[in-house]
Fold these 4 entries.
Entry 1:
Amino acid sequence: MGTKTYNPYENMVAVLEQAAEKLGLKPDEYETLKYPERELIVSIPVRMDDGTLKVFEGYRVQHNSARGPYKGGIRYHQNANQDEVKALAAWMSFKCAVVNIPYGGAKGGIKVDPTKLSRDELIRLTRRYTTRILPLIGPDQDIPAPDVNTNGEVMGWIMDTYSMFKGHSVPGVVTGKPVEIGGSIGRAEATGRGVTIIAEKCLEDLGMEPQEQTYAVQGMGNVGGTAAKILYEEGKRVIAVSDWSGGVMKREGLDIPDILAFLSDRSKALKDYEKEGTEHISNEELLTCKCDVLIPAALENQITEKNAAQIQARVIVEAANGPTAIEADHILAERKITVIPDILANAGGVVVSYFEWVQNIQSMAWELDEVNQMLKKVMLKAYHDVSNMSKEKSSTMRMGAYMVAINRITTAGRQRGGPISMA
Ligand SMILES: NC(=O)C1=CN([C@@H]2O[C@H](COP(=O)(O)OP(=O)(O)OC[C@H]3O[C@@H](n4cnc5c(N)ncnc54)[C@H](O)[C@@H]3O)[C@@H](O)[C@H]2O)C=CC1
Ligand SMILES: O=C(O)CCC(=O)C(=O)O
């Protein structure tokens, strides 16, 4: 029997189907939610520094707009593909509904290994991609943001390109921008911060003292790096972290600021990090290491039917989008491992993106305390809603989150008399 190849879109549909069934959703509504409303594939010709021309493939997928403008990040990765972006776009619709912010869901991506491009090549790639997706985006239409291998600087280039075409500055076309050009203070840390807020709340609910637990984090980028840093600053024991090259472990607790300082040199990777008492482990070993809380914060399909039975953590907080394959979900549920799903756990980023967009519309700049307090309030309310739904329906937190999201999206669709209520 051959091994089934993982397809993130099929995984998303399978989870959606389970939740729809549990909720008794009308077939019409389920069918409507399965498919994106709009998909765009673009070619992006880029003049490379050596004078040659390379053509890259890019995507923007808009999944659902029943609750508001489309919203979601842009990813640069060598394995980015249409089905991945389709899944990520749907997860954005569900995520925005779970935290109850007035957006639909979208996602974008370019199939490119950005580490192989110079800064000038990356600027040209980003500007050309922006012109290609320009008819679809805008502050009232679809608002991109950072995701894997993109950041505030890339958002600044997108905003500039869009503004050049409009003939005036349009800060609200993207979120996650540098603060100096209309970004929100606190957005860069918001996803990681939201993950720690949710992790703490979940541990308290389970009667586990957050301060006494050990934490392992896969991925040391924007999300994983920030989550690890906040946990460390709160005095919690982060015993293992990793990046694309592998991981490091120290049972007494890693020196996270030292690791982040080491990784701030972009040419460095964790495989080269040396410190007394710190041992090297593989990503697979990180996922199955003895810890209380596992935080996957890298890519999809990390927890699979192959390793789910070996996971030793009691709680998994999904900081990445789609880190757990559906087959693994069943194994984890049987083993009574609590999984806080991505569409709740990593929603802090889009919540502060929403705050940024609101600030742009009002030409205001909030204080950091205000942003962080509002973020905490929204995340805890969402946790509460999901937890209540999962108790009411005797289901996992993932099913609870999907049911909250589906209810809100389909209600909006029905109230609009729109395409989601064809019956
Ligand atoms: N940036 C944001 O605000 C948000 C990001 N996310 C999700 O969080 C995850 C991480 O995103 P970012 O931190 O923004 O990306 P990033 O590009 O800043 O960092 C990605 C990290 O993952 C590591 N990595 C890459 N491939 C890996 C592999 N095969 N095994 C282990 N580690 C690997 C990289 O070395 C890096 O440390 C993604 O799933 C993303 O969709 C979710 C919500 C918001
Ligand atoms: O901040 C945003 O708008 C979206 C971030 C994102 O792509 C995500 O939550 O996966």
Entry 2:
Amino acid sequence: MNKAQIVPQKEQINGLTLSFKNLNYIVNQDKNNQTQGRIILNNISGICPPGKVTAILGASGAGKTSLLNILAQRISTKSNVQITGDILANGNHYDSEKFARFSGYVMQNDILFATLTVKETLEFVANLKYTNENEKISRVNYALKTLKLEKCQNTLIGNELLKGISGGERKRTSIGVELVRDPQCILLDEPTSGLDSFTAFVIINLLKKLSVVSKRTIIFTIHQPSSDIYLLFDQIFLLAKGRFVYQGPKEKMIDYFQSIGFECPKKANPLDYFISIMQNEENRQSDIQNLFKGYDNQIQSQIDEQLSRIQLKNIENEEFQANFQQQVVQILKRGILNVKRDKILVRSRIVMAVFLGLLVGGIFWGAANEPGFKGTQSTTGGLFFLVMSSFMTALNPVIVQFPQERDVFLREENSKLYSTFAYFVGKSSIEIPFLIIFPIIQQLICYWMIDLNDQTASIVLINILDQVEIVWD
Ligand SMILES: Nc1ncnc2c1ncn2[C@@H]1O[C@H](COP(=O)(O)OP(=O)(O)OP(=O)(O)O)[C@@H](O)[C@H]1O
């Protein structure tokens, strides 16, 4: 392994131990709380040491994602959700705010900004997390190099409408975002889902290198890993029906299962075999009970003992947080790039403005020239619809654009890259030119079609002010 190539420029760290003790997760779907809640995680305890790759495995519905989300403080206690037990980092309790400062979370769906290139995506994070220009550049280059993203660094991320990078490159970019931030601990929900076996191996291999060389704590859920990938795991959590049936190094797993009467057939992938035993089927119930009994008798006490030995240590690597102004500037810059590149969006907004202008102008064609009360009434009607159509145009960012960006915003806000208010100010600022230009287009069209006189000038002003107020509200 080439150490020099993958050691980040940041100083080496002592590492972070994530642990949980007597963790219960109960959900009550009955709104009146009259029935007993469903136990999703049942009194489990575990340790994820630094410098190790911990894989959470189990049959579908075993509780893997729930465990990962609870460790990431992404599930909070509500009236129908009960979470009890201790969740600790280096022996300290932590909340979602603290978690965002020492950890990164890579979601199963790669939520990225479609109109940025891979490099710009990483630079956006670096600009918000580092002050020193050289450090920003070296962090981005380090992530590009480590994740082998150099070839596609100038390709757009893309989406359904915009051709962009491949699925594997998307996944690597999502991991790159966390690598730029360089947290002590990275949690990943199914990092290999939807990838071919080679790309899946490359990604897990990268995580393994990261854990060994930089002493990061790596935890992920995974489905049916190939035997090559299995060999990269240091530690395995096997879950069945919300309880552990194995926890420990992969080397000891086969012997342990053999000792409790489950011998893995030769040439079989051990994980495939053990997960098949844990399937929640009628004829497997007694096997599952035997697995629970074996775990309680042989492993639980070892884990309790290891937990009691965890020393209370400070959490290092508290991250830099960009100030409000820096946050707004970065969001604004990204928004401007989006407007430049998302041609469909801008063109559709221009077409919409022209269409509405023509529609109102056509309906009230020459109305201002009609004599008497009828003419005045029609002109007022035309002006009313003109204001309303400008109002509808101003709603565009709220109705069309925000839902598209919502997931990106939630991910970034969860990672504490910026505050909600900074996002709001940055995003609203991008809209200001549109709020001025589109009403002018509409009113210029209507000016001649309705045959308005120079009162229109004041209407333009009213419109603009109206819309600035809408966005501000
Ligand atoms: N908030 C919730 N309300 C109700 N049921 C829930 C909730 N969260 C999880 N569950 C249930 O708990 C079980 C475990 O869910 P979880 O997503 O953790 O499983 P998983 O092991 O990750 O499964 P998969 O491998 O299929 O993704 C599932 O049966 C799921 O339906």
Entry 3:
Amino acid sequence: MTAGMIIGVLALQGDTREHLHALAELDVIARPVRRPDELDSVDALVIPGGESTAMSKLALEFGMTEPLRKRIAGGMPTYGSCAGMIMLAGTILDGRADQVPFGGIDMTVRRNAFGRQVDSFEGSVDISDIDGGPFSAVFIRAPWVEEVGPDVRVLGRVTAGPAAGRIVAVRQQHLLATAFHPELTGDLRVHRYFVEMAREAGQTTEG
Ligand SMILES: NC(=O)CC[C@H](N)C(=O)O
């Protein structure tokens, strides 16, 4: 069912195009999603990196917040990178008061957690479900995960440096989030893992 599967990439704000490119390398149809009717036509969704406060505001303006919350809570496989991770969090620290996440993952994330002095850096992250060695992970004003609920599996932590041990990749059933940007490094393993998740979900719902 992979061949016919359609994966949307939220296209309100952020690096939508890079995710579309990454998905195009895999055996799926990938399209941008801006409106509720476009959301209805996809089997799974990627929420890109960018600026989560801007994304939240645009989602409210485009009438996307409620439809997204419903689909995500209803089992649509969804992957969020960086700002996308923030939007999938139940609780945001250092967010804006008017920021409304889509939720879904029982976790608390801290925005811009790695500190102001380091805007972006590359670190090494092992992801427990993904073979092939550690990721060379790009962090850009990235969040980290401060707390997870009992249903959340921690998949990856920063391995070295001052932020060593910080949680930067998680999964809760059909939902996946990373604080870094695999769409920027040409390493397709996270996208492939997500496509596999989406395919499994499709098989379950289609019997
Ligand atoms: N690269 C990113 O997606 C950065 C996330 C951004 N700092 C935010 O809070 O939304």
Entry 4:
Amino acid sequence: MYTVVVAVFLSILAVFLRSLYGRKVQYRALSGLPGPPSNYLWGNLFEFNKHIEDTFENFVGLNKKYGPIVVLWPHPWKPLVVLAHAKFIERILSTNTHLGKTSLYECMQPFLGRSLVTSEVDAWKRIRKQANTAFQPKIFDSFIPVFEYHENRLINILKTKSQSGNIDLPTYVDLYVLDAVCELMTNVKTNFQETSDNGYLKARSDFLTIFMNRAYSWVKRSKFLFFLTKEHEVQKKCVVTLKKFSQYLIDTRKEARKQSKVVDNDNGLNKTVLDLFMDADISETNLRDHVDTFIVAGHDTPGSTIAFSLYELANHPEIQAKVVEESISILGKDPNAVVTIQDLQNMNYLDCVIKEILRYYTTVPAHERLLDEDITIDGITLPKGTEVSISIYATHHNEKYFPNPHVFDPDRFSPENVHKIQPYTYLPFTKGPRDCIGKTMAMLMMKSVITKVIRNFQLLPVSPPHTPKPTSEFVLKSANGLPVKMRSRIL
Ligand code: HEM
């Protein structure tokens, strides 16, 4: 017994001393770099352990206040380097090194398990290879009927709702994207738009709010201490709701495959992500984690970007007029014209508008990586083992990279101007081998639905004027909604 107690004590002591030594090494390497003053015992815990809305403001303000490389101590022994520095970002993202994620992503695991977003590098490589087939250009044509079906439902709903007052865009857009993404990822038709059932979305939003609250608090990041909080109980309930939904999608798809409703042609080229993983013979838990990952990653991001795009079009009539003009030049004046992938790819001006939305609002404000080796640039070294947060938002709003960053200007991306954008300063989908797997699908979906909406409605600003309040649930949203007026449009 005595030997066991001594062994346990020595193990704890060893872990403690190792952490202390690790902190000393990192502290020495990073101490010369700017950042908010931190306490030796609790780091910057109290500055970042506030309400989610303050967290976003505090986070995006860091690089503005301290420069493009900022050292933060959310955990007293584990610093986080917040980067908005093109050369460092390029060095991290452009190679096959530094592909691992930081400890932050462990807080996602109760929901996403070890799937594409959260997995370690070896598993990630295998999963990414399996999933790639569902995102190849050869299958893009099969997206069109899915877009059409769900967009037509959205238009019908907006026609009714717009007659009785302002429309809060995320309320309707979020349900449209959820229906579309469920079908694109799993081949199962859901009807969130008609039922307005938001139990699933509420559970997800609550989970992500807790996730963001854990991001900068080592107390809540600690599994043991988090277990003792009320939020742990809430999170457990959210996960039950979320997993019930992914299980429903899996069961429905399994049944359809059993009934031989699956068209298995062209060596699986038309298979969804769910079909590909079902064929890979993995556990049911794993399957649910993959479904959850693709639905959450593929839903919130285009949903938010579409809502912000329509909102800015309502508030910039001259830009809206150019988008309408371009769509008429490509599709003619029939409001029911069905687009092709080629049509969508020809919408160059709309492309500039969406790219500017992805800069101006920055749908995914930041993401994190773990450094696999030392990186030295201009005499500054970030040591191996450092956790870095690539602040896409701060990079997109750096005056040096984007002049007048707080002005909404799609012409930054016009053929005459786009070459002025420095490499690794525009990163909405991040870059490199671990970039967004769904980026092309997202651009096609966003162009298709925005075109459909503006061909059916004239979008107008509300009165009195509204100012969005950005907040981050990992994905940027507006805490006070995005209201617009809609009037039927005759092309
Ligand atoms: C406007 C739309 C979108 C934006 C701005 C966006 C942005 C991003 C970003 C920044 C990442 C890196 C996240 C990180 O490393 O933590 C990412 C990863 C990812 N995205 Fe997207 N995304 C969008 C749409 C989509 C869609 C439509 C899908 C799928 C249907 C998707 C699936 C994924 C997945 C699975 C990953 C993880 C990739 C990996 O680790 O290999 N995304 N996305």
